[in-house]
Design goal:
The chain contains twelve helices and seven strands. It is α+β, with helices and mostly antiparallel strands. The chain is globular, with a radius of gyration of 23 Å. The mean pLDDT is 94.
Amino acid sequence: DVPPQLLPHLKVYLNSFFSLPVTRSDGTKLTHEEVVKQLDGLSVGYDITLGQGDLFQNIVRITIRVEPKRYEEAVSFLKDLIYGAEFTRDRLEVTTAKVQQSLPELKRDGNTVLYAVSGDLLFDETSASKASDILAQMDHIPKLAQQLKDDPEAVISEFKQIRDALTKPEGVRFSVFGNVLDVEKPRSPWKVFKEIPSASLRPPPKSSESLTSLGKRPAKKAVVVTHPSIESSYGIHVTTGIQGFNHADQAALRVACEVLDATESFLWRFIRGSGLAYGAYMSLDAEAGHLSFSVYKAPDSFRAYEEGRKVIEGLANGS
């Protein structure tokens, strides 16, 4: 539910999440240094990202890993991180500057640019992953840095809008993984979230809902991007695949991709073994409905693609 015009802010939102001042439920105010110090002492790890692996890239996932004896503390701290964080000008400026400093290195990564260009073609302005990729951020981050100087209150208001959209009760889910039986009271700590209004859960948003017309039917479109700062070439070729995790052909197609991608298997021997590329992979995206063939670090990515086509055709016709 984040408005499309605010989606480019998500990169900074996620990067600042664990380093903002927080007001605890009991009224205690923590500086950003105290938040980080307490998190490091409480947990064995924490993370915030878009989606689960390559899936569900239009959701935000927060993870905190703790020992069982710190379980109740972690639930309480998680609630305060989500709802009690204070967006301040200085912290947003620091995070924005860090993101801006990381962009040149990302821009020099051929694979990162490849998937950003591909995503820009396949997905529309409602895609959170597209709004957070290198192409979008190269344009957005300098503008955000300037906005923080000119009108910080307006930016802070927009970040609050993002939080309000992400925490709508119909879209919030909690899950616990681990030895739950080792926790004396696994359910009662979650009462700290009792202020969330009751609502019927909606299905998680799928990437298939954010496809462009080309993304719905990828065909007859080719884009070549020059990248003088790297020596290798990269390529991705996308076609219509199966859509839906319950599709009857998903298991067979996924196993076929795994066989093709395996070490010392067909693509490895005929492409990497021949020096045509460092890697070549088949990928199934049942969420978006795409099947893709990608080439990684190749002297000539199209030669690797042609060899891959010969391999697949040979397997299909038995030659």
